[in-house]
Amino acid sequence: MSLATLQRSAEVSPVPAHAPRRWLFALAAAVLLGQMAIAMITTAVAQTPTVDEPVYIGTTVVYLEQHSLRYNPEHPPLGKLIMATGLTFADARLDPGFSGDQTELGRHVLYEAGNDPAALLLAARLPMIVLTLLFGVVVYLFATDVSSRTGGLVALALYAFSPDLIAHGSLATLDVAAAGFLLTSAWLLWRGRHDPALYVPLAGLALGAALATKMSALAAVPVLLFLVFRQARAKAAVVLVVVAVAVVWASYLAVDPLLRWESPPGLPSAPVGLLPFPEPYLDGLRVQLGMEHRVWGGYLFGTHYEGSHWYYLPAALLVKTPVGALLLWAAGAVALARRPAAAYVLAPAGVLLLFAMTGDRDLGVRYAIFVPMFLAVATAVVAHRRYTALAVAAVAVSSLWTFPYYLPYSNEIFGGPSKTHLHLHDSNVDWGQDLGRLAERLKRYPGERTWLVYKGAGVPEHYGIRAADPRGVAADQVRGLLVVSTTAIAKADDALRALVDTSTPIDVVGHSITIFRRP
């Protein structure tokens, strides 16, 4: 080929000047999601069951084997059906005659039916990990739409390095899934300003997926409807609602096409009968509302209390968010407040947070897991500022430093993961995830009598832990190793507190379990 021919070819088919940069942005996004995937998969493999996972896994197995909706009605089926895409290949066994409650069901499926608990856990967790990564793509695209590709990368970096999103995105639970579907719906409505015929039905699908995963997503419906109405599109609002309701119905019919259902006894009365959802959904909502009337215990900054504090979730976010992310969230929210995108980013996050703050369960920042998603998008508008790169780097260092203990993460101002238990409890630090690590650590203390107070859903004996409960004997009989979950310490009664106070701490497992020596 002659030089002249090459020159003519170049004139006919010029390479866009922005193409190399586009590939660089795509590569950077892939690297960020790749490190997040590695962090989540590593965490998923290493951790034993958290408190909620056995219930969801057991319920999913019943969906697959018996097509029954009778377990876990307080949570709609879709999140568990997503877990089913992994559990389908796990060949889980279930005793057809089993008749216990949902907590007993989870224990039965994981530990008593001849299944491999680790294999079932990983099979249920992997689909949720994939979903969490897909929501990272949504964060990037949403932030790019609001700002620029550079802003998209900043938002994705905060998302991908978020210790809370890594921690809960690697579990077979529902919090990240519901929040991510709401984020997706808000993003699609943002795009629907210019092409409602395409994006409003898709937004309805995403909203329906959120409603079919967790009922707390209902709090977002008014603000999302407002976003459609403010564009003077009443028909679009109808489409959004109809599609969302259809997704909820489809999730129940996917489990049982006949929709067989018997209302559980003792349901609290609640004015939910006019909602256009299946009866199992309405009964589940009644169960949820009844749970809100229970008295739950909380723990904040070293104080255990009964009931709830309205400021619990903002305080927990302050502890468990990297300092660099807190700074960028604040700057991004202030800058975005003056832009039209604020209604699609800040308004849903604000309404959801206010709703969550009215709840009675001060049990973890996971109830506000939507905050790091939406506010990551908000930071896109300050991507060009000088301090942004430094703040993102600080977030990355803080996140990598806590590997692989993401669940008990707290930022450096509050002492890091080793000090989280001094400020928070339950799913913020100790959700039962370190039972397997404890079994390995106890091998360093062969032949010593072990006493265990464990907060979690795992079965210690399955992991080779032979221990007795010290709360059932006189204090002077408790000698050897006293092993206590940090949540049990936070909620300790006088007897357990006396045992802990008269023991010597000698080891810590995963920042969630302390090993003491008793004389």
Q: What keywords describe this structure?
A:
single chain; 519 residues; mainly alpha; four-stranded mixed sheet; two-stranded antiparallel sheet; 6 strands; 55% helix; disordered N terminus
Task: Give a written overview of the molecule.
There is one protein chain. The protein is mainly α. 55% of the residues lie in helices and 6% in strands. The chain has 21 helices and 6 strands. Strands 3-4-6-5 form a 4-stranded mixed beta sheet. Strands 1-2 form a two-stranded antiparallel sheet. A hairpin with a 2-residue loop joins strand 1 (297-300) and strand 2 (303-306). The chain starts with a helix and ends with a strand. Residues 1-17 have low confidence and may be disordered.
Topology:
Blueprint: H1 3-12, H2 19-46, H3 53-66, H4 78-87, H5 102-112, H6 117-146, H7 149-161, H8 163-169, H9 175-191, H10 196-211, H11 221-229, H12 234-255, H13 279-292, E1 297-300, E2 303-306, H14 312-320, H15 323-336, H16 342-357, H17 370-378, H18 386-402, H19 435-442, E3 450-453, E4 480-485, H20 486-490, H21 494-501, E5 504-509, E6 513-518
Parallel strand pairs: 3-4
Antiparallel strand pairs: 1-2, 4-6, 5-6
Helix pairs in contact: 2-6, 2-7, 3-4, 3-5, 4-6, 6-7, 6-9, 6-17, 7-17, 7-18, 9-10, 10-12, 15-17, 15-18, 16-17
